[in-house]
Amino acid sequence: MFRRLFTRNRRNEAIAYSLYGAIVAQARQPALYTEFAVPDTLDGRFDMVVLHGFLLFHRLKAESADDRQVGQDVFDIFLKDMDGTLREMGVGDISVPKKLKKMAEAFFGRIRAYDEALLSGDRAKLVDAIERNVFPDGAPAGVGGRIAGYMEAAVGTLAAQSLPTIFSGKLDYSPLPSSSAAA
């Protein structure tokens, strides 16, 4: 019994690291910062990791408890990554837990806002949540709606992916525009 539990936990950890890598890779796509005008700042990148993490969690929430546990494992890796990032930035040992708590609160606040907006089917609520979180100083005209469209398309794309495909570390989000396509 313990052997099976240990093996499953190691398997989940490997899956979670792979999925977190896919989330971060998508969050770093240049089109998010050029075509969608997301601020290329620490906060902007944080918001893109949260947004893409949300899309995975949203996909997993209808799955079994064991499968949803992978989402929790991804979140745990996210916190480890944020801890390391804060320390690399020179944040002191005493301040790291406080800052991590604020980041976790921001993470859950954004997840809740995006989830409520998608479940309501009210696109304006999703646009508002995006603009409030990603562009606290004001969104460029139309950008919130474009990101909302991207998120809605990504929800559909991820829903069409099988769980084994997702757990292989392959997350196919909706395609992003490229600078060359816009030219």
Can you give a write-up of this model?
The protein has 183 residues and is mainly alpha-helical. The chain has one domain (2-173). Helices cover 75% and strands 0% of the residues. The chain contains nine helices and no strands. It has helices at 2-27, 30-34, 42-60, 65-88, 96-120, 123-134, 143-160, 163-167, 179-182. It is globular.
Question: Number of domains in the coordinates?
Answer: 1
- What proportion of the residues is helical, as a percent range? over 70%
Helix- and strand-based class? mainly alpha
- Helix-strand pattern, N to C? HHHHHHHHH
Bulk shape: globular
Looking at the chains present, what oligomeric state does this protein adopt? single chain
Main sheet attributes: strand count, strand direction, barrel closure = none
Low-confidence stretches: 1-7, 179-183
Distance from first to last alpha carbon: 58 Å
> Taking Cα atoms only, what radius of gyration do you get, to the nearest Å?
17 Å
What's the β-strand tally? 0
Mean of pLDDT: 89
The percentage of residues in β strands lies in under 5%
Number of helices: 9
Domain Ubiquinol-cytochrome c chaperone: 35-171
InterPro entries: Ubiq_cyt_c_chap, Ubiqinol_cyt_c_chaperone_CPB3, Ubq_cyt-c_CBP3-rel
Family: Belongs to the CBP3 family.
Protein name: Ubiquinol-cytochrome C chaperone family protein
Quick structural summary:
With 183 residues, the protein is mostly helical. The chain has one domain (2-173).
